[in-house]
Fold each of these.
Amino acid sequence: MPVKVAEPARSAPRRLRGVSDPTPGPAAPSDPAAPTTLKVLVYSDDALTRQQVILALGRRVHPDLPELSYVEVATEPVVIATMDAGGIGLAILDGEAAPAGGMGVAKQLKDEIYRCPPLLVLTGRPQDAWLATWSRADAAVPHPLDPIQLAQAVTGLLRAEAPTPS
């Protein structure tokens, strides 16, 4: 006879911008229609870099946050079109991408998109953090990618975007 293991009670995920939610308005914590996935745009002209980001973050970066789904993008025009369309909760942009680097794309997104979702830029080296500041990115992580540092940065950004309970 199979034994059923009781799962521990989990708190409902917080509502985040860019989270897929079929119902309008804020979701109550016990609402079954509460958001379950957060779309993350990953931009790099290098498929290996995109895979490293996705593997480092996995499906759920933290138990308190919703599951992640990824939109992989290799060109700047597609980044702009995807971000303009909405529905993205976080964008991770490769500062070393060519011909359009992630820092320039980040600056353009922050200048052109009202209530732009958080942006994380992957810099070529730690000393390039000042360029990420110029681009108005919300966070920066240097190459080579450290999965723990990337996960901490993403968790910090997503928690900062979550509304506080009233």
Amino acid sequence: MLISGILNILTIIFLLIGTFFIFSGSLGVFRFPDVYTRLHAATKASTLGIASILIGSFIFLYVAHEVVSGKLLLAIVFILLTNPVSGHMISRAAHHSGSKLVLKHREDAYENAIKRQKTTE
């Protein structure tokens, strides 16, 4: 009984953490100035948010129905592997298409590296 109660509280905590990350990521998409910072907010927050919600769902299914869901475990691994990669590829595509950074006390290190590589060839 005590373990079940602790796992229920843990489920609630994971669901609330996931909800917080998804909500803060959606705020970041609206508030940030350029494609790259918006993409950063969307991919980081959705990765942590969805993974937390899936972990909470996994714990709930284990406690309430005594089911160990392999599909949820595979979904967690899939989300943790593919979201960062897709965010990186989308940001590279945006950079190659000419989308500029909002430069405030920063420089575009990737653009400088491409220029250096072209000059050495």
Amino acid sequence: MNVEHHRTMDAPPEREETERETGLHYRSDQPVCVTIVRRRRRLFVNDRGAALRHAGMPPGWRTVASRIERELDVNVTRRGVVWLPVVTAGPGLEEIVGRIAEASLALYQDVLELER
């Protein structure tokens, strides 16, 4: 008897993004939002570069970003995107969302100080 078994698995989407408001604001009319990116089984949280999009990229911004990386334990890309992965052994998603929001706001505020 020849029996054929088919296993169907719901594969996670290749890429899924969700934007979330955090309750923080760069200015009263500009909320700090983060994006949760799911790539297969991996999660990343980022600010899509919003801090520097709103504050600009004056000379010295990278030095400020490096300090924010060290102090708040986040990553900042060369394009100014604040981000972190969400990993099983680390803090949970909600903590990472909060950390990225706080770091994005801090980067925005500190970069504005460079222009004064």
